[in-house]
Amino acid sequence: MDYILHIAVFIFLYWMLAASLNLVVGYTGILSIGHAAFYGVGAYSAALMSLHFQTPFLVNIVCAVVTCISLGIIVGGPTLRLRNDDFVIASFAFQIATFNVLNNWLPVTGGPMGMAGIPPPTVLGLTVTSRWGFVALSGIFAIVVAGFLAFVTRSPLGRVLQASREDEVFAAAMGKNVARYKLLAFVIGAAIAGCVGVIYAHYIRYIDPSSFTLMESIFIIAIVVFGGAGSLWGPLIGATILVVMPEILRFVGMPVAVAANLRQTLYGIILAAFMLIRPQGIIGQYAFGKERIRR
User: Fold this and answer.
1) What value does the mean pLDDT of the chain take?
2) 3-state DSSP assignment of residue 247
3) Cβ neighbours of residue 266 closer than 8 Å, sequence gap 6 or more
4) pLDDT of residue 177
5) CB 231 within 8 A of CB 285
6) Does pTM top 0.85 for this prediction?
7) Section 243-262 average pLDDT
8) Within 10 Å of residue 192's Cβ, how many Cβ atoms?
9) Pairing between strand 122-123 and 126-127?
10) Counting CB atoms within 10 angstroms of each CB, which of 182, 202, 288, 292 has the fewest?
11) Nearest CA among 260, 241, 263 for reference residue 10
């Protein structure tokens, strides 16, 4: 049962990560491959605050969100004015730079050895230590995030984002500051990713840079592509399938090293197949580089 609950926690975590990236990818058409960097910044913010200042869980959430918002503005401000492939390269550079900072800033992050002993979260006087508790905690946050993103995407902000995705020149001609709206979406996605990092750090209680690599960003993108970009429920479907599917390999009996490599191969095949056969994903409304899918 603990194993199943552990998988459930990660489904909720990756649902939130994919949903936050979907706001950027699915609603503005901006492909960012640096989302795991914000995820890692949030996790390390929680670890540093908890271990050095003994701050409570909710304070760590606030600190991580503020840090990721600030970092999102610094990174997104200049780079979101770039077009298509140029922005992809910029987000790739940000991801690599963040990983190198986490991996080499030994006095602060612990480098490759990571940070251990992160205390369990305490919410409203209750310390969460059981699997059921973390399922409830991550599930509540996932529902709140989903509700918030549903509100955002159906608000005037969401309509402007979708308009800029379809025709940025037309949206600008209508008097909309497209760059500002894109930056706002990027910052919201970064803040949510940082929040997820806090939950992850308190759940695992040990973090190291290997959890926030480029491959992690690609996995989050795979969830968005698989479930469907531009869909509120696509990230949930993608997270459920892509988190559960590799776990099936554990019961096949193959060596761990082989299973790990096969897992990455499967992700690559899924991405390539969906981009060729069904670029809008299972229930998505948008296809990368194409017009909106008409139903």
Assistant:
1) 88
2) helix
3) 245, 246
4) 84
5) yes
6) yes
7) 71
8) 26
9) antiparallel
10) 292
11) 241
